[in-house]
Write a structure and sequence with these properties.
By secondary structure, the protein is of the alpha/beta class. It folds into two domains: 123 residues, NAD(P)-binding Rossmann-like Domain (Rossmann fold, 3-Layer(aba) Sandwich); 143 residues, NAD(P)-binding Rossmann-like Domain (Rossmann fold, 3-Layer(aba) Sandwich), CATH 3.40.50.720. Helix content is 35%, strand content 19%. It has a six-stranded parallel sheet, with helices on both faces. A six-stranded parallel sheet has the order 11-10-9-12-13-14. The protein has a two-stranded antiparallel ribbon with strand order 5-6. Helix 1 crosses helix 11 and helix 4 packs across helix 5. The longest helix is centred in the middle third of the chain and has 22 residues. It is elongated, with a radius of gyration of 21 Å.
């Protein structure tokens, strides 16, 4: 039961603040590493340096949502000091200690194989990804409004990909009056795009369609917007890339051509940290 657990939360961003607040009402003990700049008001929450933590006492670990970098660095917005975790730290945990991360990075994949610990990628869950797509789409709309000199209503918007994020983005932009096209691969997705009153585009036909768009929103975590496709874009086209690192856009070439291409990572934490934090906390409680 989580109300009898010892939970370690390592680093993170604004989302973690709301995770801490919600878990503190239920969890037995919460230890924070990488939060020395944070003021606390909960009796069951304490701050420790990563080197002071007894990893053998932990029942659960929450890592930063972007995971852990290849050098073991854990992102922390509330620490002036760099936070690093090691294989040895994870080896010291109980065999049934559950470790949560937003995604599984190569470092965490290595830790999972060498230690046998259960590392759960929270954003791999359909429910989390779908709920998280809402603030992501709202953040993309906010960027589109700020970075253009025309209304989104009536603008030609092409969404690349029709997964959990792509569906929500396409629906939101359509709801504010944009003429939305969606690049898809599967016949079932083309049918669903049509059913939603939007225009399906085959990925193989992108070179013919891309030059007619005002805004491109990429959700595909592969190299989609290549030099060849970027050469077909008017310079005033706005690209919003929502895909995880390294994104699906040749950002260097886009900059050379004078095209505004924004790699919009972590939008939920920026535009709706309360909602995003509650989504994560609810999953941990579940």
């Amino acid at each position: 039961m989580i109300n009898a657990s010892t939970i370690l939360i390592i680093g993170g961003d604004q989302r973690q603040l709301h995770v801490i607040e919600k878990l503190a009402k239920t969890a037995g003990q919460i230890i924070l590493a990488g939060f020395e700049d944070l003021q606390l008001e909960f009796s069951n929450v304490c701050k420790k340096h990563i080197s002071e933590i007894d990893f053998s006492s932990l029942d659960c670990i929450l890592l930063p949502i972007p995971g852990i970098a290849n050098d073991g660095k854990a992102e922390s917005k509330f620490s002036k000091e760099d936070i690093y975790v090691t294989e040895e730290m994870f080896r010291k945990t109980k065999e049934n200690c559950c470790i949560y991360s937003g995604i599984i990075t190569p470092f965490l994949e290595y830790i999972k194989k060498t230690t046998g610990r259960n590392i759960v990628p929270i954003f791999a869950r359909d429910d989390v990804a779908i709920l998280n797509s809402i603030p992501t789409a709202e953040g993309a709309l906010k960027i589109a409004i700020e970075e253009t000199k025309y209304t989104i209503h009536g603008a030609h918007v092409l969404v690349l990909g029709f997964g959990r994020v792509g569906k929500t983005v396409a629906r939101l932009f359509s709801s504010v009056g944009a003429a939305v096209s969606v690049a898809v691969r599967e016949p079932a997705d083309r049918a669903r795009v049509q059913e939603m009153g939007l225009t399906p585009v085959r990925f193989n036909d992108l070179s013919e369609e891309i030059g007619q768009q005002n805004i491109l929103i990429n959700t595909v975590p592969f190299h989609i917007l290549t030099r060849q496709l970027l050469d077909r874009l008017p310079v005033q086209t706005l690209i919003i890339d929502l895909a995880s690192r390294p994104g699906g856009t040749d950002f260097v070439y886009a900059q050379e051509k004078g095209i505004t291409a924004i790699h919009a990572l972590g939008l939920p934490a920026k535009v709706a940290p309360v909602t995003a934090g509650e989504i994560i906390a609810d999953i941990l409680l579940e």
